[in-house]
Amino acid sequence: MLYKDATGTLEVADDGGKVCGYASTFDREPDCYGDVVARGAFARTLERWEGMGKPIPLLYGHNTSDPKYNIGAVTLAREDERGLYVEAEFDGESEVAQDVRHLVKTGRLYQFSFAYDVREAGEVTLENEAKACELRELDLFEVSLVQIPANQHAEVTDVKGAKAGRRNSKADADTIKEAIRLLESLLDDGQDDEGGAQAGGAEGGEGKAIPEGREDERKAELMALLKELEEEED
């Protein structure tokens, strides 16, 4: 099994995220392996995948040994004039998938790769008289998001955030819990301040004293956490 890479057009959609773009291009400029991919190279393998009725896996870094790095599924794969166009959905229940989605969203990860075997190939002479190995028929096994591609011709154009309210990372969950804790403490202090004095007067005691300045500090912490969540959602 071999690997070939391409920078891709990435977009994140509503249900955990969708990545789409070109896993391979038909540019007649050899990649770092000296290969060019011929139009029609994926036609039969795409027919076989469609016949199986199973999605092409979306992986991170070609990691087939750890199920955590099986981060989604290709929902559409087709050849056009430019190359192999794919659309894939990130797994909305996978923390690793959502971490990868975040890297895509922030522009730190923008490259595709695919695993394949060669069924047919041959030497070809390009327009500039250079020789290259033309890959004419391939078996496609998976599509991956990777850091370093062999084919630099496809490019990232857009990334959209996941649906508001659907949070998948542990960091988000911890931030929300901390915000709730601060909000509850502010409400508790307010209730103690209003109701505690009456109870203290009836029994000769004193209501719970709010440490001077702590209420403002808690409010500031809460606002900072809420701002952090808002920025993360954007």
The SS-based structural class is: alpha+beta
Total helices: the number is 4
Order of helices and strands: EEEHEEEHEEHH
How many domains make up the 3D coordinates?
Answer: 2
The largest pleated sheet is described as: 8 strands, mixed
Shape: elongated
What does this structure look like?
- The chain has 234 residues and is of the alpha+beta class.
- It has two domains: 2-146, no CATH class; 170-233.
- 32% of the residues lie in helices and 30% in strands.
- It is built from four helices and eight strands.
- It has helices at residues 43-52, 95-105, 170-203, 214-233, and strands at residues 2-7, 18-25, 35-37, 56-60, 70-79, 83-90, 111-125, 131-146.
- Strands 1, 2, 3, 4, 5, 6, 7 and 8 form an eight-stranded mixed β-sheet that branches.
- Strand 7 (111-125) and strand 8 form a beta hairpin.
- Helix 3 (170-203) runs antiparallel to helix 4 (214-233).
- The longest helix is centred in the C-terminal third of the chain and has 34 residues, at 170-203.
- The relative contact order is 0.20.
What is the topology?
Layout: E1 2-7, E2 18-25, E3 35-37, H1 43-52, E4 56-60, E5 70-79, E6 83-90, H2 95-105, E7 111-125, E8 131-146, H3 170-203, H4 214-233
Parallel strand pairs: 3-8, 4-8
Antiparallel strand pairs: 1-7, 2-6, 4-5, 5-6, 7-8
Helix pairs in contact: 3-4
Put the structure in a nutshell.
The protein is an alpha+beta fold. 32% of the residues lie in helices and 30% in strands.
